[in-house]
Amino acid sequence: MTSPPAAQPPKPSSGARASRASSASSASSASRSVELQGFRGLAALSTVVFHVWQQYYVYDAQGAHPPVDNPYLGALISLEVIDLFFVMSAYLLTLSYARAAIDGEDRTRPGRDFLFRRATRILPLYFLAVLLVWSLRNPSLPGDWRDLLEHLTFTHVFDQERIFYTLGPTWSLSLEIAFYLTLVAVGPLAIRACRRLRTRRARVALCASGCAALYLAPVAWTAVAHHALGVPHTNWPVYFGPQARLGGFAAGMLLAVLLVALGERGRVGARRATAMAVTAAAGLYALSYYSAPENTWHTYYHPLAALLWFALLYATLHVRTTARPRWHALLRSGWLTGVGLVSYSLYIWHEPLMLFLYDTGALPHSQAGFPLAALFVVAAGLLVATVSYWAVEYPGSLLAGLRDKRGRPREFYPDPNPGPVPEPPSQPLREVEPAVR
Fold this sequence. Notes:
This protein is mostly helical. It has one domain. The protein has helices at 14-31, 33-55, 71-77, 82-103, 111-137, 145-152, 171-195, 200-228, 236-240, 242-262, 270-290, 296-299, 301-317, 328-331, 334-341, 343-359, 370-397; strands spanning 58-60, 63-65. A two-stranded antiparallel ribbon has the order 1-2. Strand 1 (58-60) and strand 2 form a beta hairpin. The radius of gyration is 25 Å and the shape is globular.
C-alpha cells in the first residue's frame, strides 16, 4: 500500500545509510586500484633486483660478501616485499566478504566459483612454467619426479630440500592457495555469524577480532618455534609455511574490514597521508637494516612488515578524493602500472631467465658487474613478461567466462525454442522485509 501524498518520506535506517556509504566507498576503492597496480609494479621490480643481488653474493671461509659493500644500499635492496603482495591480495579478495558481513551486500560468489576464477588467473602460466623449467633441468626421465609432483600440487613449501627448486619464488604461491582455501572457509561463516548480530558495530567487531586471531596465530607459532623449540631460521618449512606466513594475509583482511567499516568517514588529507606513508616506509627500511639472522627483528620481520604495509596501503586507499598526494602520481604513471599488469609473469619467469643468462655468459660473473646485470635482467624480464602476459596469462583469464555470475556453467548455445513463459500471478507478490539491515 502506498503512503498518502502528504506523508513525509521515511528516514533512512542506519543500515541503509551504511549500505550507501559502503557503495560510495566501493566506487572510491575501485578508483584506487590504479595505485595498487603501481605498487605491484614496484614490488615486482624490487623482487627482480633482490634476486640478482642474491645471485652475485660470494660465500667463502670469511663469510658472505654482498656485490656492493654498502650496508645502507644492501638494506634497501634486501627489503622484502613479498608481504606487500600478501596484504594487497588479501585486501582485494576479502572486500566482498567484508561488505556482505558488515552491510549485508551479498555480492560474494560461491566458493567453487571463487576458486575456479582464481585457478584461471594463476594456474595456466604456473603449470606451463613449472613443466617447461623442470623438463629443461631434468632432460632424462624419471628425473626428480618428487620435485615436479610437489610443485604441481603446491606442496613444495613443506619440503626442506626442494622448497626453492625449479621456480624459487613460487613458494609464495603455496601460501596464496592456502589463503584461498582459508577465505572460502571462514568468509561464509563470518557472514552467517554477522547476520545474527543487530548492530553494525558488533558485526565490525566480530570481523576485526577474527582477522586479529588469524594474524596472531602465526606470531604465536613463530614464537614457540624460535624461543621454545630453538628451531633455526634455516628450517624453511617451519618459517615459510602457511602456519607462519598467513599473518600478511590476515593484515590485508583487516584492512578490508576497516575500510568497509569506515566507508567515507575518516579519510585523510594529502599531508597526513604522506606523513603516514613516509613513516611506514622508514619503518620498513629500518626493519630491513636491523634484521640479522636469529635476532628479534629477523624472527618477527614478516608480521611487523605486514603491519607497516597495512599502514602504507591505508595511506594510499583511504585518502580524500580532492586531496590526492603528489606521490600517487608515481603509482598511477603509465609505465609503472604497465609493469604491474605483467607483474605475475615477471615474478614467474625472472629467476629462470636470470640463471639462463648467467650460465650462458650473457651476464658478467664478477661482483662489479651487478649493476649492469640488474638492468639487463629487468629489461629482458619485462620483455619476456609482456609476451607471457598476452600469450598465456590473458587468454587463460578468459576461461573465467565459462561460468556466469552465479557460478554456474555458462550457456553459450541457448535453446532456440524455449518453453512457454509463465503468466504473472494474479496478485502482486509482497516484498519480503530483509532479516538484517
